[in-house]
Amino acid sequence: MVTIQDLPRVVAGLKKEDRELFDRFFSVHESTGHLVLPEEMKPWADKTFGDHKYLEEQTIVKIFNKQTYEDGLYNDLRSKRPSLINKNEDILKIIKEAEGDNFCHPMTGSPENAFGRVKGKYCMTAANIAKYDSLHGLVLFKKHNPLEITMKEVEDYLEVIRKWFAKAHEYRPKAIFPFIMWNCLWRSGGSMIHGHIQMVLGEEVHYGEPELLKHLMREYDAQYKAHFFTDLYRVHDLIGLGFQKGPVRVFTNIVPRKEKEITIFADKFCPEFEDALYKCLRCLMDDFGVQTFNVGIILPPLEKVEGWDGFPIYARILDRGDLKNRTTDFGGMEVYARSYIITTANTYQIMEKVREKFENPIKKLFKRKRKKKRS
């Protein structure tokens, strides 16, 4: 299996025009870090990392995005570091014990926005008590367990969110900049265990990340006469980390914000986008055991605003680590250096599993039948 540690060789094998596009976006630098272990530490290192020699010569791959000025630092050894884990902690038991909280009876346990609630089949909205912005709402799932999600439920959540944005905009017409965030469980920043999604609708300007992306899109389009988001997807597709399904593009970013990040683009909300969002989430949960995650969905303004033409719906999903781990996954490098420390280099494995989620089940069944006949 190819990993990010192999990326320098993958890039070297690209055709000339493809390499030029890759180099427009990214630089890849490989280096070796050396250290000298005291003899007394070697037994501990052998036990912890498998072999102390892995520590003495470490390969680091640094990937720099020349357009966004973000970089990712990969050293697979970091995934083998010891962690402070309470192995007796039962996550499902904790979720079950929290059942009966305010979100379990939303009509009496949660406030509503000034313009009222929106109700769906599997959820309803509420107002956030401690607001990020003046128009800040919640979608409260009927199910308490945030890890039990189905396709029909995700479709319903997104439909209710769109209706909430419409009502909020009608209530305050100057509010036109929408953002959706889904923080699942405590390591992601969720203060309530009960399943929920948050949405905000801003005035005057969009939030910081979408404003930066809009600026990058306009500069890129002007300089290269090409679309920023299309080329960002293309460059990942060239190295085997992207695919397109109808109007939706999916890729695993080589400069992610954190572990196992998956990015989804679409020109607008559509069934294919909702399907992709659900399948990517299920992939992380089913195939990689993810229990705590962040989803951020940036949407273009609700009304036509100069400079936003061509801006897509832009979703990013990532893993926030082991719920039982007491060490944080964010540190000074992420907060102040804008460098993201990625502990695993399995980006290609993630893409392989995501692709499998999008395969036709009939084709899978046909393949299994053929294998049985051969045997």
List keywords for this structure.
alpha+beta, disordered C terminus, HIT family, subunit A, 375 residues, 2 domains, 4-stranded mixed beta sheet, 9-stranded antiparallel beta sheet
3D architecture notes:
The protein is α+β, with helices and mostly antiparallel strands. The chain has two domains: 4-80, no CATH class; 91-327 and 345-366, HIT family, subunit A (2-Layer Sandwich). Helix content is 37%, strand content 22%. The protein has helices at 7-12, 16-25, 42-49, 53-56, 91-97, 106-109, 151-171, 208-224, 228-238, 271-288, 332-337, 347-358, 361-374, and strands spanning 26-34, 57-65, 70-74, 123-127, 136-141, 175-184, 196-203, 242-245, 248-251, 262-266, 293-298, 313-319, 339-342. The strands form two sheets. A nine-stranded antiparallel sheet has the order 4-5-7-6-11-12-10-9-8, with helices on both faces. It has a four-stranded mixed sheet with strand order 1-2-3-13. A hairpin with a 2-residue loop joins strand 8 and strand 9. Helix 7 (151-171) packs across helix 10 (271-288) and helix 10 (271-288) crosses helix 12 (347-358). The radius of gyration is 22 Å and the shape is globular. The two termini are 26 Å apart. Mean pLDDT is 89; it is low at 83-88 and 361-375.
